[in-house]
Design a protein that fits this description.
alpha+beta, three-stranded antiparallel β-sheet, 1 helix, 7 strands
């Protein structure tokens, strides 16, 4: 995963191959309920794996970029040094979260995004396990 264009193409390829599976996948137990995914500059607040808010740390002021993640669902984790293995369902420190929003009637196509390397994934409250469903 070199340049921004290379990462974007890589993610689009994963999404094109995996969208049907992601749409039917069950929620990993670790993402049930309220969780916080933390990176150096951001905290992604998740409810049953779906991002509902992005907070910036003191070093980085709020920006509209974080809002693009709202409504997207975590579908897996990607390690920069092991991207050839593809997405993992298990979080590890340093993993990039891959988030996806399915195609909606008003949107021309699905969306996929990736966070910077994560430093923590913390449970805030537990929830009911089940299908992640459409974000």
């Amino acid at each position: 995963m070199g340049s921004a264009d290379g990462r974007r193409a890589f993610l689009k390829g994963i999404a094109a191959r995996s969208a049907k599976v992601w749409n039917l996948s069950t929620l990993p137990p670790r993402l049930a309920g309220e969780t916080r995914l933390e990176t150096r500059n951001s905290v992604y607040r998740l409810r049953d794996g779906v991002c509902y808010r992005v907070d910036r740390t003191a070093e980085r002021p709020p920006s509209a970029d974080g809002e693009a993640f709202v409504g997207m669902r975590v579908v897996g984790w990607l390690m920069r040094d092991d991207a050839s293995r593809g997405l993992s369902l298990e979080w590890r420190p340093g993993a990039h979260a891959v988030l996806w929003r399915p195609h909606a009637t008003e949107a021309p196509r699905s969306s996929v995004a990736m966070t910077s390397p994560s430093i923590a994934l913390r449970a805030v409250s537990s929830g009911v396990h089940g299908r992640a469903g459409r974000g």
